[in-house]
Amino acid sequence: MKFKATEIAQLLQGTIIGDENVEVSTLSKIEEGEEGSISFLANPKYEQFIYTTKASIVIVSKDFVATDSISSTLIVVNDAYHAFTQLLQYYNSVKNNKKGIEELSKVDSSVSLGKDVYIGSFSYIGKNVVLGDNVKIYPNVTIGDNVTIEDDTVIFSGVQVYEDCKIGKKCIIHSNVVIGSDGFGFAPTADGSFEKIPQIGNVVIEDNVEIGSGSTIDRATMGSTIIKKGVKLDNQIQIAHNVQIGENTVIASQSGIAGSTKVGRNCMIGGQVGIVGHLTIGDYVQIQAQSGINNDVASNAKLYGSPAMEASSFRKSFVHFRKFPEIVKRLDNLEKEIKQK
User: Fold this and answer.
1) Residue ranges covered by each domain of the chain
2) Of 82, 174, 241, 320, which residue is the catalytic one?
3) Which of 59, 211, 293, 338 could form a disulfide with 40 if both were Cys (CB 3.0 to 4.6 A apart)?
4) Could you tell me the CATH superfamily of domain 3-95?
5) pLDDT along the chain (341 residues), means of 10
6) Taking the model in full, what pTM does it have?
7) Which residues contact 228 (CB under 8 A, 6 or more apart)?
8) Is residue 241 flagged as an active site residue?
9) How far apart are CA 123 and CA 107, in angstroms?
């Protein structure tokens, strides 16, 4: 795909300085720019490279002032970083704009298809599935019966969506995600074995959610496991049955949330965080990596440690943790002195 400077400037509402007909076909870092690529300058630390880069086009902010000659065509915008992000999104949407149903896929006759749907080879779409406009389903995906996937959602290869689940608009589900597998529900019996509790609920994912590769979201025992709009989940995350994640919350890799816990909106949860079941986590909570949460958390809290405590208290305590052997040695010496008196 090739794009002219005029097309890019129009997309970004920018002004061209240089050759408005120059074409680019790839994106690059400014220090690695080659002819035919487009880059950007947002961080002043990289300004030196704008005078040596071979990139055909460079996006710069309005406050940039050149101190030497520049061979690249410039597109001047309000915010270079934001503009380049827009360009990445546009490039990605054009690159992934596939349409049609590949012949090696299996689509049940009862499926409702929106406009411009793409279904890749070896994918299976079950009975009474509803696919909205511009839904993209890549090869080797399984969509169970009675699933609804709304407009502009992209589902990459290897994803498994179990029956009765609902996925909203403009979601991105990365490879090998499992949505709607059984929750971990077993009842102990008199002989010490465990009897499986049927999991008859579903998973509801609202609009603008992104779920990283290898993550699992279990169906509810009854009712729904709910991922609210705007949530961003990293790779390899476990969300258990009947959990609810509030809107615009972000969770980093390898974190796990046990059953029936409710996480508020706009929370930030670091990697390898463990949260036990049946808790309530308030809004705007920040939990640092590798913390363990075993009690309810009030809104706006900042936690660290396992079991977690207020981050500021943890840092103060950690100063003493490091000195603990020295403190013990001093106490031993004091005890010896007291005994000798």
Assistant:
1) 3-95, 100-314
2) 241
3) 59
4) MurE/MurF, N-terminal domain (3.40.1390.10)
5) 92 95 94 95 94 96 94 96 91 83 96 97 98 97 98 97 98 98 94 95 98 98 97 98 98 97 98 97 97 95 83 76 80 82 68
6) 0.82
7) 206, 244, 245, 246, 247, 248, 249, 265
8) yes
9) 8
